[in-house]
Amino acid sequence: MRGQQQSRTPLLSGSIPGVDKPASRIIYGTLFLHNLPSEEDAFLLLDGVWAAGCNALDCAAIYGGGVCEQRVGAWLRSRSIPRDEIVLISKGGCEGQDKLWCATIADHTHMRSEISNSLRRLGVDYIDCYLLHRDDPSLPVGQIVRFMDEMCSSGMIKTWGVSNWQKSRLQAALEHAERHGLRPPVADSPQNSLAEPSRAVWPNTAFMSPSKREEWLEATSGNVALLGWECLAKGFMCGKWTRADGEFTPEDDVLLSEASAPRWRELQLRIAYCNKENFDRRDRALVIAREKGVALPEVALGYVLSQHPRSFALVGTTSLSHFEQNARAAAVDSVVATLTPEELRYLEMGAPRPAVASACDGKRRRAPLRRTAAVAALAAALAAGTAQLGSLPSSPHPLSNGAVRFAGASTDAGRLEVWLNGGPLGAKMAAQNGGEKVAQSGWASVCAAAGLSRPAAAVACRQLGFGIATGTMSLPGDADEQAGGLWLSGVACNGTEASLLECAHAAWGARADGCDAALGVRCLACEGEQCSTYAADVRLSGAVSDVSLVADAYVRGAPVHMSCVHDADADAVDCYAAAYDDVQPPARSGAQQQDRKQQLEESVLSGLPDPFGDTARHAFHFSDALAAEYAERRRALLRYLHAHPSDAAALRALSSRGALRWNAAGLIRSPLLAELNASSRLYGLVRSLYLSPRVQMVADLDADAALHPDAHAHGHSHGHGHGHGHGHALAHAPPDAPDLTHLDASAARIASALFSHGVAEIDDFGLDIAALNETIDEAFAKRDSSVTSVAANGASMATRVELPALEPLIMNASINAAVKAYLGADAVLDGYKVVRLAPHAAAADNIASLWHNDRAGHRLKLFVRLHDVDPRSSAGSHPTLVARGSHNLLHYSFEGYEHSRYTDEFVRSEYSVVSLGGKMGSGFIFDTNTIHKAVPEGLRGRTAVVLEYHSALKCPVIHALDLPIPCPSGDQRLVQRARRHAIDEQAAARANPGGANAGANETHTAARPPLPAYRLANQCVSWADADAHDAALTPVALPEVLRGVHGNAAVRLNGEKPFPYVVAPATITTTTTTAASPVLSVRADCAALWRRYSFDVMPLDGNTVWWDVMGTVPLRHGLCFYEGELGYVPFDGRDAGGCVTPSRATPSFGNFDMLLAFPNANSASRSAPRERRDAQAQDDESTFRALVDKYLSESDAAMLREITGVPLSELVQDVVAAGDTVIEALQRTPLMAAVLSAARFVPHALNSRGLHLLRVLLAERMSDRRRDEGDYGDDAARLREQWLRDGYLLLDFDKYTSSQGVGNALLEDVLRMTSASPGPTEPLEFVNRQVVHVANDPQYALHVDTFHPVIKLWVYDHNVTLDSGPMHYVPGSHRSSVGKLRWLYERTRDNDPQVIMEPSLRYDAANSPALAANAKLADTGFELATPVLPLPHVPRTLIIADTSGLHCRGVAQAGAARPQLRPMGAHNDGGVKRLNPFRPVGAA
């Protein structure tokens, strides 16, 4: 009874909606209660908390592993605290630190158990308010609200709320609850303090800020209690940490582990709170504290309590004295519990300080402290360290006078800063500045006159440990300049000084007059001869003969283009500059007044790119900064097109032909340069109107890099006199459809991916990662500035230490061949480095966190991961994100950073985005002309080796022209010329181990491709000589185009002539064959048949006879028969799915026959040796049992038993017992292997006991779990509930595709959600497919495609009506309801031959279409089949449907045609490529 007998201090109280008792506005957080030595110590602390007037306790299931709740429960019982006087809040639904606090709210069984365990530990019957500790954004809020409403109805909890949810999710939950009459969340618990964190403090948490608070109040209408945690910012608002703790160095880095957890937590807190804004807020809080006569923490807590009548402050401490001090903020006579709006604005933003309330206001006041006393008190608190706060001490990092760095996150370039302080240096500068001393210390931006910037850059680069400066830039100054940013102005060096401070300088402190911009510098790490690696002699001729005039010619002269050749023998680059005839550069200034009067007619831009208007400009992150420039460029464009209507017409014609295509970032290179000659006037016109000078120069260098030295073999010349070949040299950088047949398979795959997407992933480089890490860790530990560079914010560092263990990669023949295929035969490895990204990196400090291109044109960077990297951005592993296909851009401009930084909304609307994660030892190579971004923020560091490749001529020319382009990156270990030659020679030798003779032989036989030129598929067929009889026939080369044979008597439909047929695939037109001709043979133990395919069906299954034409990308073909002719069916490209025959100009996309071949039922088994089969069978059995146990619930088992009468345990045992029985119809596959395969149907007697139903249900549950664990955006999450309910979605096609009609990142997110898979492996390209209705079309029958989710896509025009025969779908039939499973059981239990043979499962034996089936659907537990019609008010509707649900084509008049778009191709199969549903969850 001790708790009741103590006198209690009254505290202010508030109401939590739905809780029938008041709660103290200060809530005690029990987070650290388990750290007290004994239960009695915990009881004494809780006694003091109760006596201080606190009657609300905040608990959580994960606090102390449940110990905190146990101690609270024991205290309640021992003190006999009345239940109606205590408010208990607890939390659940997330993992602990070891699993990074991931949400578990998707598992309802686990959640019920967790709530029960909390009740048991607390020893109570109910919890007043139960909070979901973390959100799972992949779950629909409706599902969560319904479950929590059930928990409230159960009586286990009175109300519920959320913790660490985003405002949009909380608002959606509130709206869902109101709409459906369910209990809403009544409390929200984010981090809330005057010290605003710069980022989320802990993984997957949320924080409140002034701007967010207004939005939050509007979203919640004041009906939600705000339970703020970490209100004192982990001691920051008690005086912990100084401004020096806001400086981070690599020594601060720490990876999260059990042993390092305290240091890791301390680092996260410093990153979050130690910034200038928060220190300024703390200073202002001290002013308020002095004037009100209270302590600093009281002001901080009063700030939280004053935000809203239902704003509460959670305080967690093991010190009773600290709690008692904190509780005074909510005392009934507190002077800080109701701060005025003016006081709040002063604390937050430094608004004019309000007058302090007078002493006669009736509230408690202490004697005011003087300002000096308050500062002294703060100093004392700081001197006391953090021992009394229970935290680790921090370590300020002293800086020496004159230290230099690059601002931001770069280690080799950027705005130069020098450290200045108010000590001896201040005295020195005082004399130079008329005796006025600047007292403050800090990093100062550097300003040097234009003619003096190069010597200053040289000094700074040497001081930083680099060899030379490769360029300078003019950049904006410190963003904090308005708050007193420092400058070192008028720097004048002669270039020999050891440091910048030895140079003369005019002033320091505020920015001096005449100092318009800060000095930006690019450095190159090199020694001795290395520094001349990129100083090759550039010899120029043609329209411009002086290298120093080239840039000016591009900028202000008549439009020119330049072509260069690398002369390796002379170590020189020969360039020829040619002017475009009769092309006038558009005037970009001087006519604004005239434009305003004239109001230029904008219709002239119809059908042409308009990249400089406001709409397109907003694709750029720095759109406001570009406004004036882009407005001027647009006026110039309009003026030119008005003055030259014939040019406007020519450009419009180019656009109508599809050659001129664009988006907001740039022109699409491929179609433009495929049609236009590099020296053509029209190409010159496009360049001058749309591309900035620097883009034009770099594009010219890239074009030549891709042509030389093989250009002569293709008819291109690089002569240097006017008319010596420049007139017909195509600008292709790099080429789009290269011949890669000379490459090995690995090199071809990498090069093909680069040409297609700009990025290629590599599973394993085969390197000794342990050896690499040992060398790298030692280098980072030593921090030798000659080989290691550190970013200013400490967020990243790079080392260029020598890595002997990297040698196998440097010499890798496949990698080098792929690089040369992409960049040109003279492509070279510039060098390598190791980059380590710190866990405390923040997006705000790293411009690479914005979508960008590297402003260097085409170059390649290769990354080797030195540890696992989770591709999910939310997982904290810092993956790199790349917009696939964006390498194909000619960017409008990249003169400055603002021209090359794009918004996330634009990128994801225009491109498919790949997140590059993978296992240790894997990596990727990508073109940095792509739009890409880093993910700086994370939970752990990331270390990777980075190799960089350029054309050999590109960097020397860039250096000679003094272009501010990082070519190469400056902080890498450079590869010298001699080493490059050795790499080329050794790589060539490894690629051709036979030596010179082997090379000669290859050249001699080049006219006849090596065998096999085609990869044959399907175990039953082979192409071979007609007189060959061996079953294992040797394949021969096939023509790329299989031509039909007119009237070949050997070909019959429907098996009229027994196999093997003799079909000549050679390019002949006669009706006879010879014994020497290649023929198609079908094995004697196989059967073959022709199957008829309807319109708009992709003819691809496991029995299709197909072959691959080997080349850049394997081109897959099948064999078809249409109107008496043999033909081929491409599985990719614009003609995918159509039968191509010799006499027809266009393919037929339906109503043709496809050749299939499969083993006879009595075929001899060709399975693995017995011992291997036994081992596999045991593995399959274990897998099967484990999957059933893990994913099927008791309710699932009850549903199966209700339908079949067979207990699940018995069915599982039956399947295991029959596991080695072979299924004849599935090529003699053992039953257990067939059950765990993607086979559409497994014919077996056990279907009478529910085997097929078991597969259906298990596949669905595993799919659900993948969806729960998936990583997709807000848009996809919003659609999830509708998808699960209906099985199909109707979306605006234009929103989910790019301006080029290709699926974008938004669509891929939706497809990942719907398919519960990684989604499409390639960006979805949509092709026109006309559906022609035929009588008795098999697609009219209502059916399901297979037993597990399969996602298909269609695009309907706005004018599709019911008469057009649109798809019909039975809503919800994709889910395993009792009705669906009962129907499936009746259709599959007897293994009907029709079910076995058909490619899909028909609703009934009568093949009923939708309208006929509707009469029976309701009786079998389904909804009616519904026609799927286009959305109103949009031009085209994208339909996404799960074809494991009942669907069919609508019946229409025979001959009626309906146009539509489909994503056709073997890589997507009409939507998302079907994967085995029983693959491990988490596997791709």
Q: Could you give the topology of this structure?
A:
Blueprint: H1 2-5, E1 13-14, E2 23-24, E3 26-29, H2 39-51, E4 56-58, H3 67-79, E5 87-92, H4 108-122, E6 127-132, H5 141-154, E7 157-163, H6 167-180, E8 187-189, H7 210-220, E9 225-228, H8 261-273, H9 276-292, H10 296-305, E10 311-315, H11 320-327, H12 341-349, H13 371-383, E11 404-406, E12 413-420, H14 424-432, E13 442-446, H15 453-463, E14 468-475, E15 486-489, E16 507-509, E17 518-524, E18 537-542, H16 550-556, E19 560-567, E20 572-579, H17 592-598, H18 614-617, H19 623-643, H20 645-656, E21 666-668, H21 669-675, H22 681-690, H23 693-707, H24 745-757, E22 759-762, H25 769-782, E23 788-790, E24 796-799, H26 807-810, H27 813-823, E25 827-837, E26 851-852, E27 860-865, E28 880-884, E29 889-891, E30 901-902, H28 904-910, E31 912-916, E32 923-927, E33 932-933, E34 942-951, H29 954-961, E35 973-974, H30 977-991, H31 995-1004, E36 1014-1016, E37 1021-1025, E38 1078-1082, E39 1086-1093, E40 1106-1109, E41 1115-1122, E42 1125-1130, E43 1152-1159, H32 1170-1191, H33 1194-1204, H34 1208-1217, E44 1222-1223, E45 1229-1230, H35 1231-1235, ...
Parallel strand pairs: 3-4, 3-10, 4-5, 5-6, 6-7, 7-8, 8-9, 9-10, 13-15, 18-20
Antiparallel strand pairs: 1-2, 11-12, 12-13, 12-17, 14-17, 15-16, 19-20, 21-29, 22-32, 23-24, 24-25, 25-34, 25-35, 26-30, 27-32, 27-34, 28-31, 28-33, 36-40, 37-38, 39-43, 40-41, 41-42, 41-43, 44-45, 46-53, 47-55, 48-51, 49-53, 49-55, 50-52, 50-54
Helix pairs in contact: 2-3, 3-4, 5-6, 6-7, 9-10, 9-12, 9-13, 24-27, 27-30, 33-39, 37-38
